[in-house]
Write a sequence for this structure.
């Protein structure tokens, strides 16, 4: 294992993040503040409580998940797509490293960035709503797992993508709808029964439900099922990465 | 000298089925500078990319200092530095971090002294904190070289390092390659500029259509293949070649002021004595006589032409 290479990639990628620090933070903080104002204050004044939790606080976990998932995907997919696009990938391919080290460097950096942003939003939330976290450790574990698994997913998209359009395609067509319909801003139990059933096919529901449980101790689905779902998703991504590693798909001709 | 790079029966067919390398074998000795000459599309970059791990070989084997590039890729690749043909750099990072990144990527511990030395050699030290995008094209090329040298490789591949580079920078690069040789680094470079091969290489390989046509010591090659030219400069211009001299392979140039005679240095008789005797017989007044060695360029062009003729 070439740890020095993993560190080099990680540091180089994080440097990109810190170069654009203001941008990296301002946009998620601003947009989540807007959510708090619009959903929390405007709509929240009419919904006052969901499952015993004030609506402003109720949307915090979903909002963090929403941001963290999209950020993980875009950071990781861009991180590996950019070297392909500008040609610097030649250096990764000619270095004495395996695909594993490349994945660890890029996915690690992407996950770290979205962790940062997730935590920043959490801090922002404390300014807007009265918030208590029931199981802080579980919350952190869920956050880390989500960041890593979605960064893995983003990495695969970045390897697959042959153009900037393709890079946006899957997040836009699949991930954003799933995340919005995954119960970020409502409880699944608020839906009519048909939609409740349909929602059960949305993997994001399990992640948001589990994450919300860590905050408030209430969940749409049992916590074990949530854990299973995120475990399965991570496993799927790892398998795909392993396959890419074996075949050199879209990397080495 | 021991062999540092050994290429055996290497074949490379791209996904579309195009065979860019057909059975290439080549041994490169430690410490030498070898230039690969070849027209566009000959397979020079493909050869380098395959050795360096950027593309996968279709058949054959390559080893670097005894390490197979597939089975033992970590050991093999850590000995190699690559300067690609196209400039590819992270535009927003600065020079020194870009070079440090390369060193780390190749598994070497951070050593600021080594990086500083490389940057100074390449006249980049003053630019170390500049963003890459703010550098000129020539400086970007130097950064590519600095990156390739960052992990102190023993074999350096330079894929057309001086394409689009001004004369001064080209001379600088030759000097750098020369210094590297002094440190025992083996250099493989590809080029279109024959004078480049002539100026710095110990050996020259000619590659065309995926095949190595010839690899030979530069001096021997020029001696073996070399033709020479004898220019006879006259005091009076001629309108045509005198009848008495028409048996010779002569051309009249320089508006009739110069007669040029081409001859083969390999031949036992060059025909010079006879020509000069007959010249005296014509009563022409000579101002000067000059001989010229034909360049690698002439050799190269004739080799590739022959190859094309054979193919058709
Ligand atoms: N990725 C690829 N897929 C298919 N064919 C390719 C690919 N890369 C190169 N080729 C083909 O392989 C042949 C050799 O290309 P290569 O780049 O090795 O030539 P070269 O000798 O480096 O040329 P140049 O002097 O122009 O750089 C060319 O005919 C080229 O079209
Ligand atoms: Mg080339």
């Amino acid at each position: 294992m070439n740890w020095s290479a993993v560190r080099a990639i990680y540091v180089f990628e994080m440097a990109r993040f810190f170069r654009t620090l203001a941008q990296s933070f301002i946009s998620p903080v601003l947009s989540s503040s807007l959510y708090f104002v619009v959903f929390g204050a405007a709509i929240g004044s009419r919904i006052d409580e969901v499952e015993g939790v004030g609506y402003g606080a109720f949307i915090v976990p979903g909002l963090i998940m929403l941001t963290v998932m999209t950020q993980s995907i875009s950071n990781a997919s861009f991180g590996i797509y950019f070297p392909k696009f500008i040609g610097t990938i030649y250096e990764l391919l000619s270095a004495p490293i395996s695909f594993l080290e490349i994945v660890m460097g890029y996915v690690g950096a992407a996950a770290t960035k979205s962790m940062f942003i997730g935590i920043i939003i959490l801090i922002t939330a404390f300014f807007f709503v009265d918030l208590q976290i029931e199981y802080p450790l579980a919350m952190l574990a869920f956050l880390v797992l989500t960041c890593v698994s979605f960064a893995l997913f983003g990495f695969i998209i970045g390897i697959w993508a042959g153009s900037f359009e393709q890079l946006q395609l899957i997040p836009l067509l699949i991930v954003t709808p799933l995340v919005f319909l995954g119960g970020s801003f409502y409880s699944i139990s608020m839906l009519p029964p048909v939609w409740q059933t349909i929602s059960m096919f949305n993997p994001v529901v399990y992640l948001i439900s589990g994450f919300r449980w860590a905050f408030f101790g209430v969940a749409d689905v049992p916590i074990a099922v949530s854990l299973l779902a995120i475990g399965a998703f991570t496993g799927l991504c790892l398998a795909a990465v392993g396959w890419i590693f074996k075949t050199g798909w879209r990397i080495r001709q | 000298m021991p062999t540092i790079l050994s290429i055996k029966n290497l074949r490379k067919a791209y996904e579309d089925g195009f065979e860019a390398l057909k059975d290439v074998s080549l041994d490169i000795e430690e410490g030498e500078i070898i230039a690969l000459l070849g027209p566009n599309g000959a397979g020079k970059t493909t050869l380098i990319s395959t050795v360096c791990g950027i593309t996968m070989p279709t058949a054959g084997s390559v080893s670097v200092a005894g390490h197979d590039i597939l089975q033992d890729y970590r050991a093999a690749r850590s000995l190699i530095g690559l300067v690609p043909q196209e400039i590819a750099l992270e535009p927003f990072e600065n020079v020194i971090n870009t070079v440090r990144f390369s060193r780390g990527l190749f598994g070497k511990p951070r050593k600021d002294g080594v990086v500083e030395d490389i940057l100074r050699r390449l006249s980049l030290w003053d630019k170390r904190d500049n963003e890459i995008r703010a550098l000129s094209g020539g400086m970007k090329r130097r950064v590519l070289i600095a990156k390739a040298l960052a992990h102190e490789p023993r074999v350096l591949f330079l894929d057309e390092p001086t394409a689009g580079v001004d004369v001064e920078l080209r001379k600088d690069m030759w000097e750098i390659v020369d210094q590297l040789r002094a440190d025992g680094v083996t250099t493989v470079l590809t080029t279109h500029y024959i004078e480049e091969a002539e100026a710095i290489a110990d050996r020259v390989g000619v590659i065309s259509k995926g095949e190595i046509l010839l690899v030979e010591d530069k001096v021997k090659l020029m001696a073996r293949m070399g033709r020479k030219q004898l220019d006879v400069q006259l005091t009076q211009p001629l309108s045509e070649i005198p009848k008495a001299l028409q048996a010779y392979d002569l051309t009249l140039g320089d508006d009739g002021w110069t007669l040029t005679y081409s001859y083969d240095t390999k031949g036992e008789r060059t025909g010079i004595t006879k020509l000069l005797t007959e010249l005296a017989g014509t009563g022409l007044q000579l101002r000067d006589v000059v001989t010229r060695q034909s360049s690698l360029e002439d050799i190269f062009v004739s080799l590739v032409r022959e190859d094309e003729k054979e193919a058709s």
